[in-house]
Amino acid sequence: MVVIMKPGATAAQIGAVIAKAEKLGCQTHPIYGEARTVVALVGDLTQITREPFDALDGVAKTVRIQEPYKLSSRSARPENTIIELANGQVVFGGPEIIVMAGPCSVESRQQIIETAIAVKEAGAKVLRGGAFKPRTSPYSFQGHGLKGLEYLAEAREITGLPIITEVMTVQTVPMVAEYTDILQIGARNMQNYGLLQAVGKTNKPVMLKRGMSGTIKEWLMCAEYILSNGNSNVMLCERGIRTYETATRNTFDLNAVPFIKETSHLPVVADPSHGTGLRELVPAMAKASVAAGADALILEVHPDPDKAVSDGRQSLTPAMFEQLMRDLRRVAVAVDRYIGEAPVNIDAADVLERVRG
Length: 357
Ligand code: PEP
Ligand code: MN
Prior knowledge:
By secondary structure, the chain is an alpha/beta fold. It has helices at residues 11-23, 51-54, 109-122, 146-159, 173-179, 193-200, 216-227, 256-263, 272-276, 282-292, 318-334, 348-356; strands spanning 2-5, 27-32, 37-42, 59-63, 83-85, 90-92, 98-102, 126-128, 163-166, 182-185, 206-209, 234-238, 268-270, 296-300. It folds into two domains: 2-63, Alpha-Beta Plaits, CATH 3.30.70; 83-350, TIM Barrel (Alpha-Beta Barrel). Helix 10 (282-292) packs parallel to helix 11. Phosphoenolpyruvate binds at residues 104, 130, 134, 186-188, 209, 239, 274.
């Protein structure tokens, strides 16, 4: 159920709605939109009726949300959720399409700094890189952990790019949150409810990847775990699902992009790297994602993909990424969006010389 306040409703009127709901045993989540405030009520609402709320001053109307995903639903909040990073220089959910790029794993200081400079020069706005890697085999490279986070922080310092990195366990949430700008929940952890609750209690934006066997409804319910713990900065990332098809690593469910945009106010990210698993397919599916309405892309880029310790087969070279950014700009314009211009005059030569030693 959501209690929709009239435009200009006062803090005292909103407070009275919250007090009434709490007295009736509901949890409340005020959602402050530009035009109006909505108070979402969650919990066991079977005995709750609309009348006590409709009678309060400042209330426009009370609406029962039919969907099980209450806080992420567009009926609870018609306007897009806007997530801002780097003092408003990076905005998810607005007209600009944000491109996040970088290697699958942070492999070395030199590798992450070189990649950061290359993707920034091509126009990426966020640097990706895994320090804790969820590998299918326990014998594969597991990531550099804390050292990887330090390298990412150094790459941010040099380039100014905010960073996104995966957090895999409840115990490491404080450590990863201290370094990163966006916490990534990987596909394998989509339904790790303890982890979702833990990131829901932080004040960092969270990108929740779709589980490889997760339905869209299950995925939205996972977003509810984060939202209902008080963190409203959640974005959803489609990264492909497992089907009977074996020609590609996953089946990239592009339907999910417009479906989520219709159903939810949360920003949608598309990951055609994991969605396809094949670098030659990534540009086409990245362009298709923008055409389908994605708010952001996350792309794997490696200076030497054939030598990558993870996901080299799906990683773009810096040159491929640069070309793709040029093509994406044109697709974005065709759907009334844009991708910010690539910065000019980065003095990268000196930094690279130092890093390469
Ligand atoms: C990744 O982003 O490198 C990753 C492990 O993705 P996913 O969780 O989607 O497999
Ligand atoms: Mn990867």
